[in-house]
User: Which sequence fits this backbone?
């Protein structure tokens, strides 16, 4: 099912939001996204939710909302790939359907692209807010992040820097921002959470520089609905390895 309500004027931003079983947060995050004073469209891809999320989404209306409903769960990466062809904005942003990330960071995230300094921007949960102004790489511990998650995130960034010379601190951040034509040009095959390492690998293989800006972050727990786990960490490591050495 598709509710494709594009406004006539081309938006600045296209927010790609994959959703799976987020009944308790979906209304709140869309409200937060809508509150950002920027021209935008919100492309929501429900990935076969079974908890009532689709019913909540069907009740939401607005010319800014593009609603794509999948019958079966295929994974975050697959949902993002479904959403990419619907992007009509100049800049595309990946947005999770919970409230770990703050859409008010959109302004800082798109600034390097608007100023012509970047084509790809990652929001880093680890960079200190004053890092950019001071020209430093001082890091912090993200709010609520448990040690296993901290370790795998730091390890993935290290692998990205060693294998791809990415020069980043947060490979697995949700907030990945692209000039729309850059994202559309990538031949993605991801299905689950390997979207992040695949897109990082393919960007760097095409020599796109990834610019980072600090963002706010508040981690949620598994009990609160966090879905990524240690198996996804191993899949991310394997994805970075195979695109470096075998693909």
Assistant:
């Amino acid at each position: 099912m598709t509710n494709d309500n594009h406004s006539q004027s081309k938006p600045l931003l296209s927010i790609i939001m994959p959703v799976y079983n987020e009944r308790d947060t979906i209304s709140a995050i869309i409200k937060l996204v809508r509150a950002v004073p920027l021209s935008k469209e919100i492309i929501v891809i429900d990935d076969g939710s079974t908890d009532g999320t689709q019913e909540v989404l069907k009740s939401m209306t607005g010319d800014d909302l593009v609603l794509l409903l999948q019958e079966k769960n295929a994974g975050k990466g697959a949902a993002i790939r479904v959403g990419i062809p619907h992007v009509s904005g100049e800049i595309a942003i990946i947005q999770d359907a919970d409230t770990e990330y703050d859409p008010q960071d959109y302004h800082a995230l798109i600034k390097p692209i608007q100023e012509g300094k970047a084509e790809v921007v990652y929001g880093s949960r680890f960079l200190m807010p004053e890092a950019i102004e001071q020209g430093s790489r001082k890091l912090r511990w993200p709010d609520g992040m448990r040690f296993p998650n901290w370790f795998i995130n730091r390890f993935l960034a290290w692998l990205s820097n060693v294998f791809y010379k990415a020069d980043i601190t947060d490979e697995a951040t949700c907030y990945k921002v692209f000039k729309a034509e850059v994202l559309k040009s990538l031949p993605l095959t991801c299905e689950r959470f390997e979207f992040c390492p695949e897109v990082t690998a393919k960007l760097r293989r095409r020599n796109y520089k990834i610019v980072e800006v600090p963002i706010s972050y508040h981690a949620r727990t598994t009990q609160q609905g966090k879905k990524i786990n240690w198996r996804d960490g191993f899949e991310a490591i394997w994805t970075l390895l195979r695109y470096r050495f075998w693909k």
